[in-house]
Specification:
16 helices; mainly alpha; two-stranded antiparallel ribbon
């Protein structure tokens, strides 16, 4: 076969026989398609968060309603995650990728169509929300696929790399959105339609690549012995085993909470900073630093625990340090003219907090055997989405409306804005005399 790559030999530890398994070059193409799709989907999720105030102006809604454009991803994912796990195991990887890419591009195009001339003003936000919902339907299909792809197409010594590459493409999309949205808008709501068109392009590319290039649900021959015969528990039996697993349940709650904090940070960062006079571009920079340092931290921690096998110790230490970094951010983000301190807190928060992701996912697999990787990872994802909805709604409920403030950059510079400091009242301060 043309795309047949080198062969990999493995010995059966029980029978003592030596088997030869084939791998195929097309696995790298499928991995590339998944990366583009994963990156595109996360870009669509976070399109509006870095420019929430300007999005609210263009759509004619409140900032709280704009937040629902991000929240819909969590709400939709909760009931669909169980079905996605079943689909991957029953219908196969190809169907999941095709359906996910189709929903993704339809949602992206519908969002753009809502901004075209001729669409009634009152219909713009509902149509954008409809498109965002279609993108949200694609998210579980995208998030759960890396583990399945690595197991089906890659040999044992490449699985971890393939899984990491596919998984890290999701935060890469968040990084792009954090920087691209403020740059494209540029303080001008007239660029809103252009912004949605730009985000539709990667979604269309991912769909075309998936439709044309992915033809098989699995390789003609398995790449490893574990791919040939899986010993994973059936889905329902696996869920029952996980619910009785104390160590896994602790990880489910703690790491799920970490996912929720990450979601809140990404969604509300611009709204938190604009109250203190920081621009959308600076908020986008802070979001970018959070992701970049998080990826660096994930690489360093991953290498460390891979060599020392200290998964639990690494997770505990980084959880503690990320909590301190989060506290530091909550303090410095309420100060005026502290760009370096705010950017540093975001970087440290990402470095210690985001780096836990690959280690925690590995822990979830280790402590849940013989339950399948998709099921153990899926329940943690569901836990994170449920807690994300609770946290964001709670944080929105804790805000108080401020009077007009010339120091605020929200709503394009000075409209009524929301603050998380209920005791704060805006006062006129002369330049150079601002107090924290």
């Amino acid at each position: 076969m043309e795309d047949e790559d080198k062969t990999a030999g493995e010995a059966d530890p029980v029978l003592g026989k030596h088997f030869v398994f084939k791998v195929y070059k097309r696995r790298w193409f499928i991995l590339f398609v998944l990366c583009v799709l994963n990156c595109s989907n996360s870009m669509l999720w976070l399109t509006f968060a870095p420019v929430a105030d300007q999005s609210a102006q263009f759509l004619g809604v409140t900032v709280d309603q704009v937040n629902w454009l991000s929240l819909v991803y969590m709400v939709v994912a909760i009931p669909l995650s169980f079905g996605t796990t079943w689909m991957l195991d029953t219908l196969g990887l190809r169907i999941a990728l095709l359906l996910g890419s189709c929903l993704n591009v339809l949602g992206a195009v519908l969002r753009f169509v809502a901004t075209l001339t001729g669409v009634p003003r009152a219909a713009v936000f509902p149509v954008v929300m409809g498109g965002q919902t279609l993108c949200a339907l694609a998210q579980p299909l995208v998030i759960f696929t890396p583990t399945k792809l690595a197991a089906l197409w890659f040999p044992e010594h490449q699985r971890a790399s393939a899984n990491t590459i596919a998984s890290m493409s999701n935060p890469l999309g968040i990084l792009v959105a954090s920087i691209l949205s403020p740059l494209t808008m540029g303080g001008n709501t007239k660029n809103f339609s252009l912004l949605l068109f730009i985000y539709a392009v990667p979604a269309a590319v991912a769909f075309l690549l998936a439709a044309v290039g992915i033809r098989d649900r699995a390789p003609p021959t398995p790449p490893s012995a574990s791919a040939e015969s899986s010993t994973s528990e059936p889905f329902l039996n696996g869920v029952k085993l996980l619910l009785r697993n104390k160590a896994y349940m602790i990880l489910l709650l703690c790491f799920g909470s970490g996912i929720a904090v990450f979601t809140c940070f990404s969604t509300l960062l611009e709204q938190i900073l604009c109250v203190r006079g920081y621009t959308n571009s600076f908020a986008g920079l802070c979001g970018g630093l959070f992701i970049v340092f998080g990826i660096v931290g994930a690489g360093i921690l991953g290498i460390y625990v891979d060599k020392t096998k200290k998964f639990t110790e690494g997770t505990k230490v980084n959880l503690s340090l990320s909590a301190l970094a989060c506290i530091a951010f909550s303090l410095v983000s309420q100060m005026w003219n502290q760009e370096i301190a705010v950017a540093s807190a975001c970087s440290l928060f990402g470095f210690f907090g985001f780096s836990i992701y690959p280690v925690a996912m590995e822990l979830s697999v280790e402590c849940s055997y013989p339950v399948g990787e998709g099921t153990s990872a899926g329940l943690i994802f569901i836990s994170g989405q449920i807690q994300s909805v609770i946290y964001i709604l709670l944080l929105q409920g804790l805000t108080k409306q401020m009077a007009d403030s010339s120091l605020s950059t929200c709503s394009a510079g000075g409209g009524a804005t929301l603050s998380w400091r209920g005791d704060w009242t805006p006062r006129h301060r002369l330049p150079g005399k601002r107090k924290c």
